[in-house]
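I would like you to sit down with the pair of lines that follows and say whether tokens and residues agree.
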Amino acid sequence: MSEKILVVGGVALGPKAAARCKRLMPEAEVTLVDENVFISYGGCGIPYYVSGEIQNLDDLRSTPYHTVRDAEFFRDMKGVTVRTQTRATAIDRAAKTLAVKNVVTGQEEKLPYDKLVLATGATPRVPPVEGKDLKNVLSLTRLEAAGAIRSACQEGKITEAVIVGGGFIGLEAAVALADMWGVKCSVVEMVDQILPGVLSHSVAQMAAHDCVSHSVDVYTDEKVVRLEGKDGTVSKVVTDKRELNAQLVIFAAGFIPNGQIAKEAGLDVAPFGAIVVDQHMRTSDPSIYAGGDCVAIKNLITGKLGYLPLGSMANRQGRVIGTNLAGGKANFHGYVGSWAVKLFDMSFCGVGLTVDNARKEGFDAISVSVEQFDHAHFYPEKAMMTLELVVDKATSRVLGMQGACADGDSLKARVDAVAAALQYSKPTVEDISNLEIAYAPPFASAMDVVNVVGNVADNVLAGRFTPVTGDKFMELWKNRKENHVFFIDARPAAAGRAVQEKHPDWHAIPLEEVAARINEVPKDRPVAIICNTGLRAYDSLLVLARHGVTDVVNSTGGMQAVLKMGLSV
């Protein structure tokens, strides 16, 4: 008899696993069940449909050759039976049956299986606040919501919106609404920065400035208390600090893995609700596999179970599961956490741990950052790139890298290179300093920005200088009367003197003049030095050290980083 394969969940992983299994084992009876109408769609593309960059909602459900992936497509093209509007309610592991219920008719039945795949995904996290059930309070994870939001915008019904959550989806939603439809958007994030957990506070300030400079208000360290409405439709968001008018509220405050059906069946589930699987994507029952947004996966940097709901990961895991359903031995060893997001003028990308997360995981971590052009400095087309490298002081092991750049493709290329190194080894700072990067002036510098951030980290670990980020430098400047720091601007004379004319405490001493003017620099006070990107400041620092001035901090990233954060002297 042919094997009966049941797959629960039809968005990303489920269809991939079902189709892969059927290709390798054509005689199998593969059935996919999903409680929704639409299946096999690119959920990560939803904000781009709302923004109008993707014109047709069916494009998110289509193959590269423009065939819509519906139940008929899977039946005719893949040999997979699909039952939509069918909810899985319970697993009987002893009898090897799955209880299901038709959400329209209420009809219940039990489906037998030889092997079962759980691709149950995750549920948007919605705070238990008053008014959350009002109309026009949505999440941006389903096609139906995307269609409703875009229609309302086209009809001019939405002029003000509040996004609850400053992560990827929340910011993409704000960009889509503000950029295409001119909707006045406010982002409310309960922690003290946007993109929490994936960016340092300094680089997150750059993301916030990109939003604010395009008329998207960003409120951090703020909590939604309740929603108010008129005639059953949301009209206002009340936080613990203010009131915001809104005809639309989008909850984008993270996800809760849908592991309940597995837990009720006695399968191993992590404390945070995700299903535990091995490297073959098997659960604690060898006849049941699971993957995608509902599972806990090993973090290859910490060695601990983690959670990362991404469509790219779900697709890769789906192929592994499909192979193993057909008798293969494919492995999914874990993740390093690569991500990317495009905002307005800037794109942000990263991999691995931020410095704060690294410290929470017990590493003695530091971070260093640089600003450098993504292409050769003499090439006419170029963009200034921010890269921040996170390393363990004791071992020089690289733990992560994040960055920002107007050219998202350039940034992603650098992060992907480091991601590959992190996935298959434990690279050190020296490895990053010597990482081979393809070079030609239209693509990179001879000493690429990735190599440079490794070199800077090496200098910091060796104690050659003390770095401070742009925001910390500006804090020193703000409190200069109390800390008695002596400030040096090492940029070319015209730039520094323009500031010095307004602020006498700002000393314009260009790199070329430091040695000749060394007597102007006190040896009994701490010194803070800045330039445009950090390079001239470092060279100036070396000159100062040769003349006995050693209590010096250098603003890595210089004025470029300061301006990206929306700060100024």
The first helix runs from residue 13 to 24. The longest strand covers residues 365-373. The chain has four domains: 4-123+256-325, 137-253, 346-446, 466-564. The radius of gyration is 27 Å.
